[in-house]
Prior knowledge:
- By secondary structure, chain A is an alpha/beta fold.
- Chain A has 18 helices and twelve strands.
- The first copy, chain A, has a nine-stranded mixed beta sheet, with helices on both faces. In chain A, strands 10-12-11 form a three-stranded antiparallel beta sheet.
- In chain A, α10 (169-178) links the parallel β4 (160-163) and β5 (184-187).
- The model of chain A is unreliable at 1-8 and 312-321 (pLDDT under 50).
Amino acid sequence: MQDTALTAVPxxxxxxxxxxxxxxxxxxxxxxxxxxxxLLDVFGSPDAVFAADFAALAAHVNPAQARALLQPPxxxxxxxLDATLAWLDRPGxxxxxxxxxxxxxxxxxxxxxxxxxxxxxxxxLLDGPxxxxxxxxNASVQGRANATAFAEALSGAGLCIVSGLALGIxxxxxxxxxxxxxxxxxxxxxxxxxxxxxxNAELAAEIARRGLLLSExxxxxxxxxxxxxxxxxxxxxxxxxxxxxxxAVASGSLITARLAADQGREVFAIPGSxxxxxxxxxxxxxxxxAKLVDSADDVLAELSGFRPSGRASTAEPxxxxxxxxxxxxxxxxxxxxxDVLCERAGLSAEQxxxxxxxxxxxxxxxxxxxxxxxxxEKP
Amino acid sequence: MQDTALTAVPxxxxxxxxxxxxxxxxxxxxxxxxxxxxLLDVFGSPDAVFAADFAALAAHVNPAQARALLQPPxxxxxxxLDATLAWLDRPGxxxxxxxxxxxxxxxxxxxxxxxxxxxxxxxxLLDGPxxxxxxxxNASVQGRANATAFAEALSGAGLCIVSGLALGIxxxxxxxxxxxxxxxxxxxxxxxxxxxxxxNAELAAEIARRGLLLSExxxxxxxxxxxxxxxxxxxxxxxxxxxxxxxAVASGSLITARLAADQGREVFAIPGSxxxxxxxxxxxxxxxxAKLVDSADDVLAELSGFRPSGRASTAEPxxxxxxxxxxxxxxxxxxxxxDVLCERAGLSAEQxxxxxxxxxxxxxxxxxxxxxxxxxEKP
Lengths: 379, 379
C-alpha cells in the first residue's frame, strides 16, 4: 500500500509539457495566485492561457499582465522545470496542480490557493480530514506536552495533523500526529528540498517516511522570513479547524488562526494561566470567538462527522440511573418552580432548595431560566 | 458620614408592628418567597394580607395556604420578633423589607427576592454598583491572589465586591474589596448574628466595620448546608455581574454563575491550566458563554458606565519582578512535581529541592498538595 501511494500520486511528472505550462504560469511575472486562478477559471488550463492572444487575455487581466503572459518562459523557469522533473523521478515525490486530481479539495476553495503543491511522502493523507495545530516556537514544556497529547488523540480519532514544522508547538504536534494512525502533514515555508529549521531535520525525514511534507514554493526556495506567514494560509486551508496551543499576543499563530476564521474554519484555543504570556494569545482568540477546549473531545464535538470518545469529557451529566423518588417523582417532566414543588412535596422552601441542589449536582435535574427546574433524563 | 449611615438605615426598627407583620408573612408555613411576593403585589403590604379574609386570600393562593395565613403567628415567630427588635437597637444594625426604601433595587427584580434583609455595617454600599466574585473554598494560592487582585482593582474602579464569606476565593475577594474604596458586602448563609466559618470571624468583624454583612435568614439561623446555595441567588442578585475565579466542575460557584446568567447578569470566568481541576469549572462556564477575563479591565469593559483603566492589566507581572531564569523558566505556569523539574532542568533532586526552597522563600513559587510546585506571579 505504501509503495502504491508513493508512486500513484505525482500526476504531473508523467507529462513534462503540462508541468512546463503550469510552472510558466506560476512563475509568470506580475501574475499572483488569485489572477492565475481567475485565468484558469476562464481558459480552463495553463496551455489554453498561453494559446490565447493579447485581446483575449486583456479582457481579463491588465495590459502589463497580458504582455507578460505572451513572453516565452524565462531561463530560470526552464532550469526550474528541469530540476523539478529530475526531483519528480524519485519515489514519493509529486506535484499537484490546482483543479487536477489529488489537489486537496478544502484548500482549492480558499481565496488564493497555490497553483502547484510539491509533496513528498504519503499523498493519501490529503484525502482525509485534517486538523491544524499551531503555536509558539518558544513554547513551554507543558505546552509542547499538550500539543503532542492533543495531536495524538486527534490522529487517533481520524484527523491528520497539519502544522508548519517550526520548533516548539509545531514539532510537538507533528510528533503527536505521527503517534496516531492518521499521521501528519508538514507545510513548509521553503522549497520542499530545503531542510529548515535544521534542528527539525530528523523530524522532517520521519514525516517524509510516515507522513507528508508539502510546499507551494519552487524547489530550492531558501528560508525567507516573509514566506512563513504566507505559508500559514495553507496550514489553515488544508484543515477543517485550527487549534492554537500556546501563543503570545503578537504572533504568527494568531495570524494562522485569523486566516482559519476567514476561511470559515473552526478555531480552537487551549487556555492557561492569566500570568503566562504564552496563554495571552489563546485568551485573546477565545475572547474573539474561538472555542475554548480543554480536551481533544472538545475539538471532536465541534467537527461534523466526529464523535467525542467520552473518555476525557468534562461536561457530561452523570447518568440518572436511580429511580425517580421523592422530589423527582413529584416534579413530573415539565418545568416547575420552587413554590410548586413546596406545595406538591409538602416541604419547606429550604428543604426543596437543598434537594434541588443535590439533584442538580447529580445531573438529574437542570435549572432553566426564570427560576424553573426540570428533570433531566438520559436517552 | 459613617455614623449617619449607621443610624439612618434600619427603617423597620422604628415600627415594631410593621416588622411583626413582615416577620409573620416571611415565617408563614407553606408560603415561599414567590407566593409572598405575589400576595404583596395584590394586597400592598403584610398588614393588608393579614387583614384579608379566607375568600380574598383563596382567590390568589390555595386553600391550605389561605388557612395558614389566617393562623395567628407562632410562638417562635413572636420570640423572633422580640430578639430582632433587641438586635436592631444596636448601631449599624438594620432590617430592609422588599419594596421599602433601602432595599437594593437590582435584588428586588430577581424572581424570588427575600422579603427581609438583615444588614450590619455601611448600608450605603447597597446604593452603588456591585460585582460578585466567587470561587472554590479549596482554592490554590494563585487563585486566592487573583481573587484579591481583581477585587482590589474593581473596588478601585467603583464596584463594591459581593461574596459569600466562605474560605478560599470568597475571603480573598472580600479582602481585595476592603483594600479599595468601594469596599465589600458579605452575604451570609446563616443568621447575621452567627459567625461562620469561625476561621473568618476576624474578617467578618472587619467587614462589619468597613463593609456590610447581609443575610436573609432570621437571627440565630445556624450554618445548615442547604442554606448556602440558596443564599447564592442573593450574591448574584445584588451584583451587575459575577466573576468566577476558580471552581471545580460540580461546585456551588457554578450554580451562582448560572443564577447570575438567569438573572440577566454578566458572567465572567478566569481561565487556567487545563490540567487544574480548579479551572475546569471556569472553562465549562466559558464554553457556555461566560466571558473569559484575564484582567480587571476585561471586566470593566463589559459593564456599562465603567471604563477600563488602561493601566498595566491585573495579569501583568510587576515591573519589579525578575525574569524567570533557571528552574523558574522550565517550571512554566502549571503545577509540576520535582521529578519533572529534575528532568527538565537536568539537575539532581537535591539541587532542585534547594532551588525550590529559595524560590518559595522569595514568594516566587508555591507548594501545592500532592508534592506539586507552581510559579506564583504577583499581580
